[in-house]
């Protein structure tokens, strides 16, 4: 398998040339699990670890490799181990606010051409969550595709209603309906996946991601578990890893994400809510909050039943959340820089006194 079959493209050519000058080889990160890495090149897949220099220079965990990244490595022990020296620029990425109270980016995966957003037609169907996933995809310059699974559990009429709900909030992404029981739609998903291109599955636990991958693999390699009687998903996938499918497409499997906090995703929000963004440009006031201001084009569209109140509420909520976290991140980084300057000056002054 050559590097182009692993997803290497012309966009990365300048970075690859720089690696050669540093006596480093290009490899792709295929798995990350609790700080352990697997990387793959033309010869195969081997374990890898980060160099101390890379760890030292990283300003945050977002600067460290994630699944799908292209990295510069140096092989050792006869090519059975590798050291990761650098992370190449990312053409596209999936990221979110780190889980918990930390205000920092968490990189999920990189160099993805399209994201399949998987949502069950049964218990999991949730427009607001779909809009969050769409923001993540657009924020990282990734084409979104919506997969509606478990269509065998509902009638064709109900399925049409669910698709209508998605379209009414301005979602223009392709929608593919899939049943892992009957196999309907699986071949359509496979046909969307081009050899040498990278795809990922996004969605809650229990929506059928692992079963779908087994259909795409054709050999049932991955473990699956039944969904609980409440409809709540159970984790099957426990780490993010890149899989090469038989027809040459690359697929990143990952655990379901319970937290989808947004940070610095303003561009992704505007792209995902393009209908509201377009209307907002017609408002009388440029800083319109779409509340009670006169001349608000968004409110007028709601009154004409062209936009739903819930759609606007979610737009305002996601924008406020992203801006709040971005402000918190900026404040924290400013404090870190100020503290770093204080330490530098203290050491410099202390060194001068010691010489005296």
From TrEMBL:
Its cofactor is Zn(2+). Binds 1 zinc ion per subunit. GTP binds at residues 149-152, 203-211. One of its GO terms (molecular function) is metal ion binding. Keywords: Cytoplasm, GTP-binding, Hydrolase, Metal-binding, Nucleotide-binding, Ribosome biogenesis, RNA-binding, rRNA-binding, Zinc. The keyword Lyase does not apply. Residues 100-260 form the CP-type G domain. It comes from the Bacteria. Its EC number is 3.6.1.-. Signal peptide: none annotated. Residues 110-258 form the EngC GTPase domain. It is found in: Cytoplasm. Zn(2+) binds at residues 283, 288, 290, 296. One of its GO terms (cellular component) is cytoplasm. Pfam families: RsgA_GTPase. GO terms for biological process: ribosomal small subunit biogenesis. Monomer. Associates with 30S ribosomal subunit, binds 16S rRNA. One of several proteins that assist in the late maturation steps of the functional core of the 30S ribosomal subunit. Helps release RbfA from mature subunits. May play a role in the assembly of ribosomal proteins into the subunit. Circularly permuted GTPase that catalyzes slow GTP hydrolysis, GTPase activity is stimulated by the 30S ribosomal subunit. Belongs to the TRAFAC class YlqF/YawG GTPase family. RsgA subfamily. This is Small ribosomal subunit biogenesis GTPase RsgA. The lineage of its organism: Bacteria, Pseudomonadati, Pseudomonadota, Betaproteobacteria, Burkholderiales.
């Amino acid at each position: 398998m050559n590097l182009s079959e692993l997803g290497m493209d012309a966009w990365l050519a300048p970075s690859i040339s720089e690696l050669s000058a540093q006596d480093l080889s290009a490899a792709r990160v295929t798995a990350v699990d609790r700080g352990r890495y697997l990387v793959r090149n033309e010869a195969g897949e081997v374990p890898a670890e980060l160099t101390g220099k890379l760890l030292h220079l990283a300003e945050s965990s977002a600067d460290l490799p994630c699944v799908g990244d292209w990295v510069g490595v140096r092989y050792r022990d006869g090519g059975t181990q590798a050291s990761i020296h650098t992370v190449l620029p990312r053409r596209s990425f999936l990221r979110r606010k780190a889980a918990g109270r930390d205000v920092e980016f968490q990189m999920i995966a990189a160099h993805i051409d399209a994201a399949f957003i998987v949502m069950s037609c049964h218990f999991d169907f949730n427009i607001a969550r779909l809009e969050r996933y769409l923001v993540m995809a657009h924020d990282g310059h990734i084409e979104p595709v919506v997969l509606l699974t478990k269509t065998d559990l509902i009638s064709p009429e109900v399925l049409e209603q669910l698709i209508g709900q998605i379209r009414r909030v301005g979602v223009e992404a392709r929608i593919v309906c899939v049943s892992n029981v009957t196999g309907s739609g699986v071949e359509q998903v496979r046909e969307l996946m081009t050899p040498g291109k990278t795809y990922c599955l996004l969605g809650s636990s229990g929506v059928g991601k692992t079963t779908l991958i087994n259909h795409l693999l054709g050999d049932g390699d991955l473990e699956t578990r039944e969904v609980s009687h409440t409809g709540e998903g159970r984790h099957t996938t426990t780490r993010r890893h890149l899989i090469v499918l038989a027809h040459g497409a690359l697929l990143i499997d990952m655990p379901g994400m319970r937290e989808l906090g947004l940070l610095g995703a303003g561009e992704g929000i505007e792209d995902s809510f393009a209908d509201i963004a377009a209307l907002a440009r017609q408002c009388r006031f440029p800083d319109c909050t779409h509340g009670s201001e006169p001349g608000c084009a968004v409110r007028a569209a709601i009154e004409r039943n062209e936009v739903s109140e819930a759609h606007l509420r979610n737009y305002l909520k996601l924008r406020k959340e992203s801006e709040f976290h971005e402000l918190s991140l900026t404040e924290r980084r400013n404090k870190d820089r100020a503290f770093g300057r204080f330490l530098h000056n203290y050491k410099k002054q202390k060194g001068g006194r010691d010489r005296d």
